[in-house]
Amino acid sequence: MPPASLVRLCPFVLAALLPAQGAGFEPPVLQTVLNSTSFEGDPHLSLDGLTLWFTSSRPGGLGGTDIYSATRPYLGGPWNAPVLETALNSAQTDGAPFVVLGDLEIYFVSSRTGSIPNGATPSSDIWRATRSAPGQPWGTPTNVAELNSSGAESLFSMTLDGTECYFTTSGWGNPAGTAPAIFRATRSSPSQPWSTPALVTELANGRSRRDVEISFDGLQIVFNEQQPAPISRLYVFAATRPDRNSPFGTPVVWSEFNAVGTSPGVNGLTVSAAGDEAILAINFPTTTGATELMRARRSVAYGLGCGGATPLTLSSNAPNIGGNWNLATANIDPVSPIAITFFGGAPTALPLAALGAPGCTVLVDTPFVSLAATNVGGAANLAITVPAALALVGQAFFTQSACLTTGNLLGLYASNGLKSVLGG
Asked: Does residue 5 sit in helix, strand or coil?
C-alpha cells in the first residue's frame, strides 16, 4: 500500500468513466440513518455524490409522501440525518426528486393542485423549482406543462447538458396503457421548452417500469422492470449506446440485485456519476419499514486491455479501510512469471502502438507504486491490507496490470484500467 502521505496528496478525479455492461456491485448495505419505519424510495445522488435526495412517508411531513435530502462530508462518509425540504412539499403526494448540476434547479413529481387530473383522480405531474444558491430556500414550484399528460408522469432524470430527459408515464399514448413506460424529450438548450415526449421504443415491451435514470453523459440508462420470472418482482436493467444519436442496445440485468429484499424487489435506484456507488430502494416486509434505502459499491473498469486471444484483465472488490483490497489479474501470458499492478492518482490514455504494442494503452497516469503477484495458471491475485485510517475514505485510485509477452515488440501486455474508491 502507498505511504499515507502519498495517498493524501492523491486527488479525487471525477472522471467520465463508462462502466462495463453488467453489474459487479457488492451486496448492498442498509443505510440506517436514512431510513425510518415508513416508506423510503426514489433516491437520487447529486453530481458530486455528497447529497442524497429521496422520498419518504415518515411522520412529520406535509402530505402522503415528501421530499427529503441528506448530506455527507465526503465520498463514502456517514450520512447526516435527513432534512425535510419544506418549500418543495405540499399536502398531496410529492417525491422522485432530481437535482441539476449546481444544486440550483430541481425536478420532482407531485399530485398537488395544478397537476393535470385523470378524470376525477389527481394525477402525478413533473414539477420544477429553482433557487439562487446552494443551501438557499427553493422558489415556488411550477408545473413543467410540456412534459405532462392526463396520465401519471414520474421519475424524471436528465443529462448533464440539460438537453435530454427521460421519465416514466402512463400517458402520452403509452401503448402499455396503465403500465408505466419510459419516454424521452429533448430541447436545444436548457433555456428552451421540452419537445413532445416520445416512447423509447427499443426499451418498450409492455412491462411496468418503476424507475429510470439516465447517466449524466447520456450513454447509459438504468431502470427496473416487472418480470414474471425467475420470480415475479422488479429487476434492475441497464442499457448502453455508443453516442447520443444512437438507440440503446439490449438491456442487461444487474443480477446481483435479483434476490435482494422481498417482492416486489428493487423499487428504485440511483448510480453515482463515477459509476462506483448505487443507492437502492429495496422492498422488505411492512413490519421493517416496507421500502428501505441501501448502498452498494463496486470498482469500475475503464479502457480496454490487450493480449493474445483473450485480453489481459484486471478486476477487484470495492475496498474499505481496515479491510482487504483484492486485485485479480487474469489471462496472463504463460511466458510471464508475474503480473505487475500499477497504482496512480488519475486515469490517462496513452497508446503504445508506436512502441511496438498495437492495441495496448497506458491507462494510469504517473504510477507512484507498483506491486507484483505470481502468475498461477494465467491468474495472479494481489491482496492489500488497507490501513484503518479515516483520512483515506473517499480517496480514488486508478490501477492497471501488465505482464511480459513475446506477442509484441514491446514485450508487454496491458490490462484494462480500474477505478476504486476507498470506503469506510
From this structure: helix
Determine the straight-line distance between the first and last CA of the chain, rounded to whole angstroms: 17
pLDDT at 84 over 60: yes
Q: Residue 396: what residue type?
A: A
pLDDT for the residue 119 = 67
Average of per-residue pLDDT values in the chain: 89
| Residues 361-365: contacts with CB under 8 Å, at least 24 apart | 361/303, 361/304, 361/306, 361/414, 362/400, 362/414, 363/302, 363/303, 363/398, 363/400, 363/414, 363/416, 363/417, 364/398, 364/399, 364/400, 364/417, 365/398
In the prediction, which pLDDT does 310 show? 94
Per-residue pLDDT reduced to its tens digit, 25-57: 999 999 999 999 899 999 999 999 999 999 999
Set of cell numbers at residue 59: 411522520
Q: Among 5-14, 356-365, 399-408, which is the least confidently predicted range?
A: 5-14
Which residue is associated with the grid cell 440513518? 33
3-state secondary structure of 360: coil
The SS3 assignment for 202 reads: helix
Q: Do the beta carbons of residue 403 and residue 340 sit within 8 Å? A: yes
Residue pair 115/122 in contact (Cβ under 8 Å)? The answer is yes
